Structure formats: C-alpha cells, structure tokens
Amino acid sequence: MTLSPRRRIAAAPLAALPLLILAACGGSGSTTTTVAGIDTAVPLGGRLTVASWNVENLFDTADDPGTDDSEWLAGAAGNWTEERLGAKIHSLAEVIRQMNAGRGPDVLGVVEVENAAVVRRLADSLQTLGPFGIVHRDSPDERGIDVALIYRSDRLTPSSIAVRRVAIDNPTRDVLGVEFTVKGGADPVYAVV
User: Which is it for strands 146-152 and 107-113: parallel, antiparallel or unpaired?
Assistant: First the structure.
C-alpha cells in the first residue's frame, strides 16, 4: 500500500498496537484522525465505528499439519469441540452486536484467530446487522495465530492490503494493513491490526 508522507505508517511501532485506524477528512485543511488501541467501538468522525478485540484463541477443531494447534483438538487437554467453538462464536457475536448502540462496528480488528474459516464464521454470525467481509492472511506464528479485519461490506471496500512481518527471534503474527474505500466518501480509511 502506498501512502502519502502524512499518512506513512512505520511497521515497527505497529507491532504492539491492537488496532490503528487512520481516516482522512476531505476539504482544505484536511486532517488525519488516529485512534489506536481501541478496546470498544468508538465513532470515528461521526461516520465510521471501529473496534478491536483479542478473541483469545479462536481456533477451529481441525488439525492443521502446518501449525502446532494440537491443544485445540477434540481429545486434547482442553477438549475443544465443535460445540464449544460454536458457543464461543455465539458469545463473541452477542457482544459485537451490542457495540455502537446495537449497530455493531464498521471495522473490527480481531487478534488471536487461527484462520480465515473461523473469521468467516464469526463474520457470518453478525449478518443480522448487515453484510460483512473479512481480510485475513496466514502468519508465520508456530501455533497458527493470526490477525484479521471484519468490515461492513455495504459501507467499505478494501482497495489495498499490506502484510508486514515482525522481525523478532520467534515467528509471530504479522501486522495486517488495509486501505478501504468508503462508499459515498472521497477519502480512504486505513486500518492496521
């Protein structure tokens, strides 16, 4: 993703941020609004609502031979089952649907998800609020833990996606950045999780 100098994002400081949203306001004297480390839904300029949530080990029940997800399988110490996964997704969705006075967020950064399939299941559980899309990329984390963005597809369209590796000794989840086009808006919105 190519950003203007005033919107340039340095990857290193972002590794510690759960979610960063940069929104540009049009017109002369336009400004950049930054909302970082959001724990609950917060209106952004009165137009979009963003939230971030560490959903703590949202794993499916299938064995992924490319990762060490053995503790999240049926019969493992945690006895993770399809029933327990469904209950967790249901509980997460109940809270998400209550955000923003019952309208839910326009962009939701989720941390500690295993793969696109569980993110899609979570997004599908929000369909009573409207249509949701997802952006997910597999990270090099040995346990298979990733980050993703869930977004209102009737309000936003991803126009650019960037993934940054975090340079540390042990492979960890990547930093995911998405440039969104706001339907009916002139300026893009940037989300990094």
Answer: antiparallel
